Amino acid sequence: MKTLGIVLIIIGIVMIVIRGFSVTTQEKVADIGPVEINKKENKWIGWPTYAGAAVVVVGAVLVVSGKRK
Prior knowledge:
Blueprint: H1 2-17, E1 20-32, E2 35-46, H2 49-68
Antiparallel strand pairs: 1-2
Helix pairs in contact: 1-2
């Protein structure tokens, strides 16, 4: 459990520092014979800062409880 706690702490810190990322998606709008029309769209995938803080807290609890045993 101590290793899982350390991993969660690292992931939580990364979530706090990097608030999300952008993904480009491509969607086919029309396909008329040899002509093809595509649409590219940027989508933001993000998470709130408190989610990263919650992951850090859970990781810290696991590390502390792993030391007590």
